[in-house]
Design a protein that fits this description.
The structure is a single chain. The protein is mainly alpha-helical and 188 residues long. The protein has a domain at 26-144. Helices cover 82% and strands 0% of the residues. It has helices at residues 2-19, 29-47, 49-68, 76-116, 119-130, 132-143, 145-176. Helix 2 runs parallel beside helix 5. The longest helix has 41 residues, at 76-116. The chain is flat. The N and C termini lie far apart (95 Å).
């Protein structure tokens, strides 16, 4: 009998909770949004585009220098100058692209935090990034980004000829099907 009363009491309590209006359970979306924006701002402060650009600039120069070594008709000073000018041009272009895209990247990161993290989790992430270990983590990643990306970049560079061949084969296959992706060449 007591067990039945206990079960009935529990069921009644659950029914009452379920019957409460939805607004009685607060929606913390705005709080999560504000906290997520703070996390993204904190991340940008420590690993933002300016810091990444500095690290990437050094990683851009090395492959250019390697390519320029084969330009034996140039003096060493001319190769250095060419590496300087080309690195500056690439950095400037990449800087413009990053400046244009960072608002979208930040908005996407903010959305991910809001959609996939609870308010407590976002605050925990923020506390970590605000801690000495979190700041060091972000600084190391930003500083060592070229080193971290090097295996990927080398792999992509090594695979570029094969990927180009695949694209060319796909373009030819489509042309054989009557889908010309390249404009017709005069005289052909």
């Amino acid at each position: 009998m007591i067990r039945r009363l206990h079960t009935l009491s529990l069921a009644s309590a659950l029914a009452l909770l379920a019957a409460l209006p939805a607004h009685a359970q607060p929606d913390d979306t705005e709080q999560r949004l504000a906290a997520a924006r703070e996390v993204v701002a904190l991340m940008n402060e420590h690993t933002g585009p300016e810091k990444m650009m500095g690290a990437m600039k050094a990683s851009m120069r090395a492959p250019l220098e390697q390519q320029l070594r084969s330009a034996t008709h140039l003096t060493m000073a001319q190769r250095d100058r060419a590496a300087d000018v080309m690195t500056a041009a690439l950095s400037e272009g990449l800087g413009e692209v990053m400046a244009r895209l960072m608002p979208e990247v930040n908005a996407a990161m903010t959305r991910v935090y809001v959609e996939r993290f609870t308010l407590a989790e976002i605050r925990a992430v923020q506390a970590f990034y605000d801690s000495p270990a979190g700041r060091k983590s972000m600084a190391v990643v930003a500083q060592d980004l070229p080193q971290l990306m090097q295996p990927l970049m080398q792999g992509l560079q090594a695979e570029a000829p094969r990927m180009q061949a695949r694209v060319e084969a796909a373009i030819q296959r489509l042309a054989d099907e009557g889908i010309a992706l390249r404009p017709p060449q005069p005289g052909r």
